[in-house]
Amino acid sequence: MKNDLILQTITKFVVLIILLFSVSIFFGGHYSPGGGFVGGLMTAGAIVLLLLAFDIKTVAKLIPINYISVVAAGLLIASLTVMGALFFDVPVMTHAYKYFDLPILGHTSLHTAVVFDLGVYLVVVGVTMTIIQTIGEDE
Q1: pLDDT digit string, tens, across residues 95-111
Q2: 67 Cβ contact partners less than 8 Å away, ≥ 6 residues apart
Q3: How do the domains of the chain map onto residue ranges?
């Protein structure tokens, strides 16, 4: 692959913007469209953009993550969140929330749906990147 300085420089800025928007979509998911699935796809898209601008070995050095472990962690988090309803004798997928006064954010609510969305987010990023890397490494 030839060294394309313009693509690589712009990719660094665009990936940061995509990741910030992904986090925004992730946290807004329990109030509006978005959440773990869309946020995970956007994050995977940002990593794919890095793969297009650089090569797999460079991105693997930059982000040394085993994506199969990310899938396992996401499944564990999502499963434990769903099973938590069994311990509190409420219907499955019932989520709880409570309001807190946080130092920077002020009066805000924290939902267990965010924990479930984190599991979904990790599964989506892990599965998508495992597929992309498997296709990319097969020469």
Answers
A1: 888 888 878 778 877 78
A2: 125, 126, 127, 129, 130, 133
A3: 5-137
Residue pLDDT, tens place only, 48-106: 999 999 888 888 899 999 999 999 999 999 999 888 888 888 888 888 888 888 787 78
Output b/e per residue, 84-95; b: 16+ Cβ within 10 A: bbeeeeeeeeeb
What is the distance between the alpha carbons of residues 45 and 76, in angstroms, rounded to a whole number? 23
Can you point out the beta strands (E) in 10-135?
A: 97-102, 106-111
| Alpha carbons 31 and 108: distance in angstroms, whole number | 13
Whether pLDDT at 117 is above 60: yes
Gyration radius of the chain's alpha carbons: 18
Report pLDDT digits (tens) over 31-46: 777 788 999 999 999 9
Strand ranges for 1-138 from DSSP E = 97-102, 106-111
Question: Dihedral sign, CA of 80, 121, 20, 33?
Answer: negative
Contact status, residue 93 vs residue 105, Cβ threshold 8 Å: no
| pTM for this model (two decimals) | 0.86
